[in-house]
Amino acid sequence: EVLRIDWLERQTVPPPVLSNMQAIPDDLGFAGAALALADIQTTGRFMGQEYGLHETRVAPEAEFLPAARALLAEGANLLVVKAPASDLVALADLPEAADVILMNVAVQDDDLRGENCRANLLHTAPSHAMRADALAQFILFKRWNKLALIAGSYPEDQAFAAALIRAVTKFGMTIAAQKTWEFNADMRRAAASEMPLFTQDLPDHDLLLVADERGDFARYIAYNTWM
Question: What pTM did the predictor assign?
């Protein structure tokens, strides 16, 4: 018996970032799926099962749902999906996907676990709220009560920053100061001079939280703050 697993990816054009020190691999996500498949094949042999991984990538300019419908028509019923939230919800709402298992491996939006939750959509990617709650509990345990926050200006940065604020508030803590990172300088050259000035007006703090979901500027903050 062969259990079919489909990797369905909506390719996106990576946004420009200030930090290009670490390129994003072209096979990010799929490489993990391939590694997992090799790992479970050993168990499968004992159980008389074989697992097959099918890869489908949809170009940024192409339509996503027709590609998904083609897979469903072929009999795919376990789809590991790397795609934006809008594509995920549209796929989950297809009548032919009602009894299909969809696994979200990338999108961390909280509303996919709330108002946009779907019965056939499961998540391996942690949500913003899950990450923020875990961090807040650790902060509470360490008694780092004086907090400050720097958040990027992109929507995903603001979403994680909001989750951090909700989490620390829920656990009885407060963020004394918050700043938004709006620089467009090349931090590889300017970090040592720009970061101390940017963080100079922050109040005394035990921990500086950073919401930088694209990996844009956070790497330059450590060891360069005013404190």
Answer: 0.86
